[in-house]
């Protein structure tokens, strides 16, 4: 019978869990009889690589060809560990460690183990998650699910507790830091926001000790112990030991032996906290950001759950106690909570898989949930997903965000693209995807290059390609493409990133796109349901507009004209502006304001105006609309209610009357038609 396992693939230590015969999550001991396996790999001369405790012993004995902390390099194409003429990536090294974990689990469980759930830091990006899955596959494991480490810890905590509320999970491990805010309600665990740093962990606290002590040694003896690999390995081991001692006692010491010199150094807990204050400040700042993103303060939390071995340091507990006004939540093993949560998730995934295959739930031990209640986990991604696009000025490349961070996964967003095709085949589209929060390309990571092939030539020479951007339940990016009017989906191929990405910092080829002013009547006649429907329609318009090539500004008009947001490619900014629209005053023409803003636009200017009544100063509006036409500014006018149909037809490139209950659909149609035609004159309402 095949068994499933949960794996905490840690930076310094890893662990395996499963469900026992009583339906409880338990840690699976390794061949050495331990719960934790050191995440270390050793390459003996002429033999197969060794992972775990034996590899760590080789490191401490001064052997060469030992590697640890490679989890921090996951997804880094430049990292290579060279040994005996062969190079290993972080993925290769992780596969060796995972094979050790799988083999030990099979020995302990007495059967084949092929299915797993693996935890990763919440801050891992697409490359790191994809490479983790690849490493598991190399090790002979099917990955049923990738799950964020803080979420796994919360699952373990949640099934053992009946209390509901919002929790903050502060996860400081050996090499990574994550902080997550989530809500527990019955059997539902909903992640609200998450963030972290995969290059911040207990190792950095150890390094501060090593730096301080070796500096003292060099001042005394003129020799640097870091220059000798064997001595350095001793320092690494002893610094970790000293750190752990300082969690229990107020003062501890370590001895350094090097170049014929021997010296003992004592460090107090106060000195240790002084040396590492900048590291604690890094976790404090990230915690503050994540709480803010969730829209919460410390007082909104039911408690703080500490996870990861490094949270045993008193400085962590003291800070949490100070900020929250409460004792940290107890009742879980901080070293094992993530792994046990992975085992619980593995049981849930195995049961789902078997049901899809027509089998009666999980085969083998089944998870026992308190009260028999179901467990539903809603996770998020800590990185926004975007694509490389051209700035609204057309002078540089920018990061255009498509899916905002902290949106529940899985999630998909669609964007239409216009592509000029040629006869004879070979038509394709290239998309570069990013993860990051800023609009500048320097503020994000380019994580994928996708090519869409099989695009058919059209009679007009232009094809409309609908591209679906998605985070799956593992937080891994997927891209789907379809050509409008064609049945089969396009072939999407993920290719390696070019070695030379310097073009990102150059000037793009001409790609003007659209500059759209979304102009909404906010006079008192729109009060209540009409304005509510207008906002919904505007939001639908934004959703179906390609913001990689088009910018949108939001204007409200009554007896005054108010600019709620300037032209933006940022969906979040535009949507917030739409939601702020508020009724006021009478109805004056907004066209003069729009003309002044758009007359010098480098992009194709389009005004989309919605109104439900007659305007004062119609002759001035007609004169301004003629100036707009002369300047190449298209006007799309949508009227409903008591709008003046004849007047709207006169001032616009194209106009339509609609019913209030059809407003959302009408705006969605306009957005799609604009994407296809590139101007109002090409729109045909069907």
What does this structure look like?
The chain has about 675 residues and is α/β, with parallel strands linked by helices. The chain has 4 domains: about 1-160 and about 335-375, Nucleotidyltransferase, domain 5 (2-Layer Sandwich); about 200-275, ATPase, substrate binding domain, subdomain 4 (Actin, Chain A, domain 4); about 385-505, Substrate Binding Domain Of DNAk, Chain A, domain 1 (Sandwich); about 515-680, 3-Layer(aba) Sandwich (Rossmann fold). The strands form 8 sheets. Strands 1, 2, 3, 4, 10 and 11 form a 6-stranded mixed β-sheet that branches. The protein has a 6-stranded mixed β-sheet with strand order 29-28-27-30-31-32, with helices on both faces. It has a 5-stranded mixed β-sheet with strand order 17-12-13-14-18, with helices on both faces. The model has no long low-confidence stretch (mean pLDDT about 90).
Beta strand %: 25-35%
Q: Do you know the CATH architecture of the largest domain?
A: 2-Layer Sandwich
How far apart are the first and last residues' alpha carbons, in Å?
Answer: 59 Å
**Major β-sheet profile:** 6 strands, mixed
Summarize the topology.
Blueprint: E1 3-8, E2 13-19, E3 25-27, E4 37-38, E5 40-42, E6 50-51, H1 53-60, E7 66-68, E8 81-83, E9 86-88, H2 90-109, E10 113-120, H3 126-138, E11 142-148, H4 149-159, E12 165-172, E13 177-185, E14 188-197, H5 202-221, H6 229-246, E15 251-258, E16 261-268, H7 269-275, H8 277-293, E17 303-307, H9 314-324, H10 337-356, E18 376-378, E19 385-390, E20 397-403, E21 411-420, E22 427-436, E23 444-455, E24 462-471, E25 477-483, E26 491-495, E27 514-521, H11 529-543, E28 550-557, E29 561-568, H12 571-579, H13 591-598, E30 604-611, H14 618-630, E31 634-639, H15 645-651, E32 654-657, H16 663-677
Parallel strand pairs: 1-10, 10-11, 12-17, 14-18, 27-28, 27-30, 30-31, 31-32
Antiparallel strand pairs: 1-2, 2-3, 2-4, 5-6, 5-7, 8-9, 12-13, 13-14, 15-16, 19-20, 19-22, 21-24, 22-23, 23-26, 24-25, 28-29
Helix pairs in contact: 2-3, 4-10, 5-6, 11-12, 11-16
């Amino acid at each position: 019978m095949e068994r499933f396992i949960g794996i905490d693939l840690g930076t310094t230590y890893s662990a395996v869990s499963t469900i026992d015969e009583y339906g409880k999550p338990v840690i699976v001991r390794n061949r050495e009889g331990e719960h934790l396996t050191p995440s270390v790999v050793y390459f003996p001369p002429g033999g197969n690589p060794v992972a775990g405790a034996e590899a760590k012993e080789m490191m401490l004995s001064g052997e060469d060809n030992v590697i640890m902390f490679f989890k921090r390099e996951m997804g880094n194409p430049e990292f290579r560990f060279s040994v005996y003429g062969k190079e290993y990536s972080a993925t290769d090294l992780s596969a060796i460690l995972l094979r050790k974990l799988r083999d030990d689990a099979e020995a302990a469980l007495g059967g084949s183990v092929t299915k797993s759930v693996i935890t990763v830091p919440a801050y891992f990006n697409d490359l790191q998650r994809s490479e983790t899955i690849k490493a598991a596959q190399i090790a002979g494991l099917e990955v049923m699910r990738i799950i964020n480490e803080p979420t796994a810890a919360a699952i373990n905590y949640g099934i053992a507790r009946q209390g509901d509320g919002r929790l903050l999970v502060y996860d400081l491990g050996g090499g990574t830091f994550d902080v997550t805010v989530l809500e527990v309600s019955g059997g539902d665990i909903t992640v609200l926001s998450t963030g972290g740093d995969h290059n911040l962990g207990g190792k950095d606290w150890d390094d501060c000790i090593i730096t301080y002590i070796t500096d003292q040694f060099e001042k005394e003896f003129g020799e640097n112990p870091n220059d000798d690999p064997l001595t350095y390995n001793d320092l690494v081991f002893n610094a970790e030991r000293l750190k752990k001692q300082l969690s229990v006692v107020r003062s501890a010491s370590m001895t350094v032996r090097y170049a014929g010199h021997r010296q003992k150094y004592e460090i107090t807990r106060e000195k240790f906290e002084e040396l590492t204050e900048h590291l604690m400040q890094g976790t404090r700042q990230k915690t503050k950001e994540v709480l803010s993103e969730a829209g919460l303060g410390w007082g909104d939390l039911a408690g703080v759950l500490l996870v990861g071995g490094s949270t045993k340091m008193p400085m962590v507990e003291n800070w949490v106690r100070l900020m929250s006004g409460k004792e940290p939540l107890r009742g879980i093993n901080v070293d094992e909570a993530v792994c046990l949560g992975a085992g619980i998730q593995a049981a849930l995934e195995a049961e789902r898989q078997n049901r899809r295959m027509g089998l009666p739930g999980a085969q083998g031990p089944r998870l026992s949930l308190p009260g028999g209640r179901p467990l539903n986990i809603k996770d998020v991604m800590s990185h926004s997903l975007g694509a490389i696009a051209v700035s609204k000025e057309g002078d540089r490349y920018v990061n255009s965000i498509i899916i905002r961070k902290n949106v529940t996964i899985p999630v998909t967003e669609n964007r239409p693209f216009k592509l000029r095709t040629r006869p004879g085949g070979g038509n394709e589209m290239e998309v570069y995807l990013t993860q990051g929060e800023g609009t500048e390309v320097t503020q994000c990571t380019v994580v994928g290059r996708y090519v869409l092939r099989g695009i058919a030539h059209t009679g007009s020479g232009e094809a409309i390609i609908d591209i679906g951007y998605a985070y799956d339940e593992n937080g891994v990016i997927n891209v789907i493409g379809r050509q409008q009017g064609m049945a089969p989906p396009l072939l999407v191929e993920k290719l390696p990133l070019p070695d030379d990405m310097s073009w990102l910092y150059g000037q793009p080829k001409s790609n003007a796109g659209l500059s759209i002013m979304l102009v909404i009547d906010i006079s008192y006649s729109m009060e209540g349901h009409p304005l509510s429907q207008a906002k919904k329609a505007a939001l639908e318009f934004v959703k179906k507009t390609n913001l990689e090539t088009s910018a949108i500004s939001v204007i409200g008009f009554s007896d005054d004209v108010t600019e709620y947001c300037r032209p933006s490619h940022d969906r979040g900014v535009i949507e917030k502006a739409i939601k702020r629209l508020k009724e006021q005053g009478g109805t004056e023409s907004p066209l003069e304001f729009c003309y002044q803003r758009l007359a010098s636009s480098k992009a194709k200017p389009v005004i989309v105006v919605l109104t439900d009544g007659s305007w004062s100063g119609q002759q001035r509006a007609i004169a301004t609309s003629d100036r707009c036409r002369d300047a190449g500014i298209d006007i799309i006018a949508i009227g409903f209610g008591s709008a003046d149909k004849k007047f709207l037809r006169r001032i616009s490139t194209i106009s339509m009357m609609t019913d209030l209950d059809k407003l959302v659909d009408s705006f969605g149609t306009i957005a799609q038609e604009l994407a296809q035609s590139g101007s109002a004159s090409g729109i045909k309402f069907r």
